[in-house]
């Protein structure tokens, strides 16, 4: 693994994405794993590989700016940052997702929209009705904050007070996560930081965000 990373560092420019492979049903690899023909690596080994990658990339001058993404010389993915920062975006094409306020249609609330997945079916719908939107849901204030929390904490900058305030003008980050509760405990354990910049994971916390989110979401939902 380390040798492979060394090779990658010699070939890449100033951005590296390292996503753990997800087994998708219907693929040959998934079938092999499910029937035991291919092994899956132990979780401890995967964790060691991740920490090795973090250390090597930071030593090579990369900033670990998102759980699975590293950049140097300011070469952050501005496209993906729009998702992690809960900005508005329109999904175009088969299977695409969007999050935006449809002001052109007279809307005033943020919506989640999903396009039809299958390309042929999507094209037929576009030709018939002018769009391929399969599903549209108006997001509640709580659902919006849950997305802000889950996506924003994936980044090293976390969730700024200003960004949180855009979605929650009457309930600040301190009011939700600065009081006694799960978030306070996570801060005391060294996983989380809440200060003048906002709410974010520590270096150690970023590696285990999935295990922190359930407690944080529970605390948010109580408000």
UniProtKB/TrEMBL annotation:
<dbReference type="Pfam" id="PF06969">
    <property type="entry name" value="HemN_C"/>
</dbReference>
<dbReference type="InterPro" id="IPR010723">
    <property type="entry name" value="HemN_C"/>
</dbReference>
<feature type="domain" description="HemN C-terminal">
    <location>
        <begin position="139"/>
        <end position="207"/>
    </location>
</feature>
<dbReference type="GO" id="GO:0006779">
    <property type="term" value="P:porphyrin-containing compound biosynthetic process"/>
</dbReference>
<dbReference type="GO" id="GO:0051539">
    <property type="term" value="F:4 iron, 4 sulfur cluster binding"/>
</dbReference>
<dbReference type="GO" id="GO:0005739">
    <property type="term" value="C:mitochondrion"/>
</dbReference>
<dbReference type="InterPro" id="IPR058240">
    <property type="entry name" value="rSAM_sf"/>
</dbReference>
<protein>
    <submittedName>
        <fullName>RSAD1 protein</fullName>
    </submittedName>
</protein>
<dbReference type="InterPro" id="IPR034505">
    <property type="entry name" value="Coproporphyrinogen-III_oxidase"/>
</dbReference>
